[in-house]
Amino acid sequence: MLSAAHDILKQQRAPGNQSHAVLLADILPTLFIKLIAPFGLHLLPYSPRVLVCGVCAAGSFILVAFAQSVRTSLIGVVLASISSGLGEITFLAVTSFYPRGVISWWSSGTGGAGLLGALSYLGLTQAGLSPQHTLLSMLGVPVVLLASYFLLLTSPAPPGPTGEEEADAAARQPLMNPEAPESKPASDSSLSLQEKWTVFKSLLPHIVPLVLVYFAEYFINQGLFELIFFRNTFLSHAEQYRWYQMLYQAGVFASRSSLHCFHIRHTWILAVLQCLNLGFLMADMWFAFLPNIYIVFLIIVYEGLLGGAAYVNTFHNIALETSDKHREFAMTVACISDTLGISLSGALALPLHDFLCQLT
C-alpha cells in the first residue's frame, strides 16, 4: 500500500501531501488494535482473527483497485491496516507456544513480505501493468495466508506432562484438524493487572529504542523520500520513489534474516544510528550536497538494515528474557513499539512536508 500510495493519489489527482494521509490510514488502525490488545483482544481465539486478516486483506486490494476517490482509497488502506495489525499481534503471540528460534523465521518472513510487496509492485508497474491490475494480481496473497495457517501450520504440543510420542503427534496436527489440541494454551489469561504492569515496565528498555528506530526511519520514508529528487538520472520522480521503497525493504529483509549470524543485545545503539541517519538525510534535503542518487540508494539500504535489525533483536531479546507465563502477553505489548513510532512520524511529517513544499 505504501509503495502504491504515490501512484494511487496521482491517478486521482490528489494533492501531494495526501500521501501522508495514506501513511496515517495505513498505521492508525493498527495502532488502535495494538493498544486495545493487552486489554482483552489477545484472549480471543486465533483462528477467527486470522480469518478476519485474510478477508480484510482481500477487501483492501479490491477497494483500492476500483476506487474512484481518495476517500474510498483510504478506506481500502484502512482494511489493509486492520489485516496487518491484527495479523502481527496474532502471529507474534502464537510464536510464544513454539521454540524460541521461531522468532527468527517470523522476522525473516515479515522482511521478505515487505521486499516482495515493494519489488512486485515495482516490477509489475515497470513492466507496464497499471496500478489497478497490479493490486488485483495480489489477491492470491490472502488465499495463501489462510491456507498456510489452517492447512500447513502445525499445532503446538499441549502444555503439561505428556508422553513424548503424544506430544510429537500433537505437534504434527494441522490446525484445521478437529482432533488437534487447542492452539492457545492458557498463559496470560490469569495475569493480574499488577503482573501486567510489572511486565510492561520491564519491557520499556526494549520498547523505547524500537519506537525511536521506527520514528526515524518512517520519517525518512514518508517525510523525505518525495523531497529527495534527482534530475540528473534516467528515473522519473515516481520511479525514484518506488526504488527507494524497494531498496529500503531489501535492507529490512536482509537484517531481519540475520539473527543466526548477529545478535545485538543493546538495541539502543541502533536507535542512535537511525536518528543520525535521519539528520544526515534532512541535511542533504536542505543543502543538496550528495552528487548522485546512488549514494542515497546506499543510505536507504543502510536505513533498512538498522530497522530490521532493531525489530528482530528486540523480539528475540524479549523471548529470551521473559518467562513462559508472561511471554505471550509480552509479545502482544511489545508490538506497539513499531506502530507507535510510525504513527508519531506520520503526524509530524504532515506539517513538515507542507512547510518544505512552501519553501521550494
Q: What's the structural blueprint in terms of helices and strands?
A:
Elements: H1 5-11, H2 19-36, H3 46-65, H4 70-94, H5 102-126, H6 131-136, H7 140-152, H8 164-171, H9 193-224, H10 237-256, H11 268-287, H12 293-321, H13 324-334, H14 336-359
Helix pairs in contact: 2-4, 2-14, 3-4, 3-7, 4-13, 5-10, 5-12, 9-11, 9-12, 9-13, 9-14, 10-12, 11-12
Q: Secondary-structure element sequence?
A: HHHHHHHHHHHHHH
Percentage of β-strand residues: under 5%
Radius of gyration: 21 Å
- How many DSSP H or I helices? 14
Nearest-integer average pLDDT: 81
Low-confidence stretches: 161-173, 176-186
Number of strands: 0
Query: Helix fraction?
Result: over 70%
Distance between the termini: 27 Å
Largest sheet properties: none
Q: Which overall shape is indicated by the principal axes computed on the Cα atoms?
A: globular
Output the structural class: mainly alpha
Give your account of this protein's structure.
- It contains 14 helices and no strands.
- By secondary structure, the chain is mainly α.
- The longest helix is centred in the middle third of the chain and has 32 residues.
- About 7% of the residues have low confidence.
Entry summary:
The chain is mainly alpha-helical and 360 residues long. It is 72% helix and 0% strand. It is globular, with a radius of gyration of 21 Å.
